[in-house]
Every structure is written in structure tokens, then in C-alpha cells.
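tool_log.txt
---
The assistant was asked to compare two proteins side by side. It first ran the structure predictor on the initial sequence, then on the second. Raw inputs and outputs are pasted verbatim so the downstream comparison step can read them without reformatting.
(1)
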Amino acid sequence: MLEKASIYWHRWTTVAALLLAWGVLAAWQWQEYKAECDTARDALRRQAESVVNALVGGVRSHRRLGRFVEEQLQAALDELAKSQDVLAVAVISTDNRLSLTAGKADLLDLASPIEPGRYWDKAGFLYAAGFQVMPNMPGPRMGPGPGMRPNPGARPQLGRDPNEPLHDEAGPDRGMGPGRRAGRRRDGPDWPPPQDMGKPPLSGRFLAVLLLDRSRTDRLIQHYAWLRILVVVAGGVVIFSVVLAWRATVRLAETHGRAQLLEIETRHLHDLSQAATGLAHETRNPLGLIRGWTQRWMQAMPADGPQRRQAQAVIEECDRVTARINQFLAFVRPCKPRLAPVRPAEVVAELAALVEPDLDAKRLELVAATSTPERTIRADREMLRQALFNLIQNAVEFSPEGNVIDVSCGVGQDGPARIEVADRGPGVPAEAVDLLFTPYHTTRADGTGLGLAIVRRIATAHGWQSGYAPRPGGGAVFWIGEKRGRN
């Protein structure tokens, strides 16, 4: 009992350890999946921050354009909305003076207030950032004024009046650079246009809103999920395979151990069988000698003397022991049938003639019936004869006087052969049915318990079946026949 409990404990401990290993693998893959998801989302967040920073820089760079700032910013937003993963973009001033959108603006829901931050929703990844544009400082001037402080240490130019306005030394036809002169373009109209000179530059607090497509990130996260699930499933399959391999190895070892034990037991039983066979032969020969001398001694005695009755009892006991020895030898003899065509009806007829004295002693009648008398089966004739003799003899022993024993040979044209012997005796108790064909199990006081065991051994050697069934109306039916599918 303790050994069995130890085996169960060891087995379940191993299973628990493997399940724990699988759980550790699953937890590890879950952490890896979370890290990969965070990396994918961080990449989208960094992309949004980069785009918004560029947008804010563009807004600040266009603040000097006056009324043209809206046109320039709108064009920039339209181009930005055409970029990959950008669904919508907007620049909104907090005082509602400026509201520029591009792309799928309906996804932004500008009717509701938007707070700066990062938001994940079904439409995509929304990034809103507030920024401030300072008023445009006046440009540099060459003389005193609000744009530039005078330089006390500057050396006045020779030949010029310090109060005279400073002009471009290159003259009206030479610019100060490739694109600028003092307050004029080189080859174009005045910039900014005269009508915008008095308009204040773009300034104030603004909100940049960007909506990025999250479908690629979601697909990437889904790919990571399937990848980690496959790793966990593969790990489970590997662990399950290890469990199966371990169980198969254990069972193989147990089977190998049982096979060795069975081999040892088989050798031992074979040795016992050889010894018992030799002992039976050595016992039967002296019994024959005792019976012969007792019979000669009985013939010389008076017919009605007590010594003659004693001699007759010795002869009967010798016959009984010899019969048991013969049955034992028939049981332990190697059973290797020599198959040949045999007519079961002929074998039954021979046995009916053989047991006729026993039938007459109990006023029994043996009725043999066969549907196809000429039909043959492949069997060892002597073994089939021995098996049927044991069944008929068993029926004679249990049949009440004056009854009938039925022997039927159910041999169809194509179906399996089946021979039944039915008696009208007391039948077999239910608790003894499973032991009927067990060697040395008998319900008779003078039985050996080998008759039905020999029947089953012969049937097994032929690849047949044997069995018992209660007879309707009382009695027993013993049968022997081919298996279904054999012909």
C-alpha cells in the first residue's frame, strides 16, 4: 500500500513540476508581450510627438506673414494630412480666432473641448499639445530706435553727417543680399504687402491636435499576441510530449519488468509441468502393474468372498486414478493442431456410439441434428473428438435419468461453425459461471476439473471460441465454434 502511494505521489509531483514549468513559460511570454506592446505604442507616440513638434515649429515660423499665415498653415496642414498614418490634424487657438483642420476632421470631434494629452480610442491615437507663439519682435534697424540701441563706441563715418539717414552704400541697384534690401525685396513687390504692414503678427496660445492611424500598431500587437500564444502552445505541446514520453518510458519499464517476471514464471511452470508429467508417467506405470496383479489375484478368489470385493475396489480405484492421470497428461500436452477437413456430423456419430453404454445406464437419449451433414471444417480430428467427448460426457454426468441430450452442429454454407451440447440438468450457478473453464474447478465430488479446461485449450489452439449459456426451460448449453469472420 505504501509503495503504491509512493508511486502516485512521485507521478503527481512530476506532473505538478511540469505544469509549473509551463506556467512559468506562460508568465514569461506574457511579460514579453507586454514589453512588445509598450514598445509599439511608444513608437506611435514618438511619431506623434515628432509630427506635432514639426507642426508647432512651422506655425511659429509663419507668424510674421500677417493675413497670409492662415493660407500658408492650411497648405502645410493639407500636405501633412497626406502623410502615412496621419488621419487628421488641426491647429486651434484658445480664443477661437484661428481654427485650421485637414484630413478626416470629423474624427477629431472639435465640438467637444480637447485637453492636451495622449488618448487611445477606436479612431486612432490622438495627441494634443498646447503651445504659445510670442508676438513678433521688430526687425533690426541701423540707427537709434526701438529696434536697435545706439552704440556709443561706434566710430562715425567720415564725410557724413551723423544726423543724416544711413543708406545702402551700394546704391539703389545693389542689394544687401540675395533676397533682401533695407525693407524691400530685390525684384518684387514690397514684403509684407502694404495692406498687411499694420496687421499684428500671429500670437497667443494654440492647441495642435493630431490623429494617427493605429491600425498598423494594432496589427503589430496582434501579431505579437499570436506569436507569444504559439510559443506557449508549443511549450505546452513539448511538455505534454515529455509527459507522454515519460509515461511511455515508465510503462515500458513496467511492462519489461512484468515480461521478465512472466518469463521466469513461465519457465518455472514449464519445469513444474515437465516434472509433473514425469511424475504422472512414473505413477501410471506402477498403477497398471498393481491393477494387473490385483485382477489376476481376484480371478483366483471365490466369487462371493470378501477378498474378491476388496480386490474389485482396488481395481476401481486404480482405474479412477489412471483416468485422472490421463486427463492431466492431456491437459499439459503441447496443443498443436494438425488442420484437415473434418465432418463434425461424423465425429458426433462416433461419439454417440462410444458413450452408448453410459447413456443406457441412465436411460438417456442422445439426439444429433445438423443442417448440412456433408459440410466440413478445418480442424484437428482427434482434438475435436476429445473436446466433444468431454462436453458430451459432462452432459451425461449432469442429466437426470430418462432425459434427452441434444447435440446440434450449426454449420452454415458461409457462416462460422458452431457445435452445441445441451442437457436438461440443474444448470450452473451464477457464481460459478466465470470459473467453468478454469483448470481444477469442478462442481462434482468425483470430478477432476480438467474436462472443460481441455475444451477451452483445444478451442484456443484452433482460434475458436468456447462458452456456456443457460438452456431455456432448465439445463445448460456448452458450445464450441469458430469466431465470426473465420470460415
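(2)
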Amino acid sequence: MKQTSKTITNMQKDIRQFAGDKDVMTNIKVTKSAVKSSLNNNMLPAGTPISQTGTVDEATPIGLLFNDLDFEGIGDDETVTASVMIHGFVNKARVTEYIGKEVPEGVITALKGKIQFL
């Protein structure tokens, strides 16, 4: 078993439009090597579109990464469990800010009926 200690200094990001219990999450296993090109300072930002197989996917995502996923100290072949929103209401402006670009139309289309971008 691997045990680490880390001091967190930044505030947790929230992609939800409304706080409450109407959001549905699922856990997806993500391998660092599968998302390495999308990492920013070893962090995969909240709002990143994620596929069923745990890759960044703007064409056919299953949902959006709910929280920042920290890969610091994680080897390329190691797996981390990510919380992925698969149903709910999302603040589009916050997601745009967190991922550093406009939410791609392919993501909005693929998640239509599951996630509403407000």
C-alpha cells in the first residue's frame, strides 16, 4: 500500500450550476498515461470530458470530471479513481474557465439529455 501526505492550498472547484442531490456521479478508473497530454501541472481539471474507458474524449464522453484529479507522485502506469458527473446541471462558464477553453460542441451534443450546460 502506498501512503502519501500532501498540503492542498487551492480551493476545490465546483462545476455544478445548482448545489443539491439531483446530480448523478459514477467512478471511472483513469491511468495517468491515458490522460498525460491533458495534464496541467500533474492535474486533470474539473470539467474535463471523460470516456467510459478513462480517457479524455471530446467526441463520445460518458460525462465530465467532477473534481480536479491530482496525478502528482503517480506513475504513468498507475490508476486513479475519478468521480465523473453523468447527469445534472453544469455551469458552462465555470467549466470553460477550469478546462481553459470553450466547451467543445461535440461534448455538449454527446451529453445532451444527460448533462445540461447553463
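---
observation on (2): The domain at 24-117 is CATH 2.40.300 (Virus Head Decoration Protein; Chain: A,). The mean pLDDT is 90.
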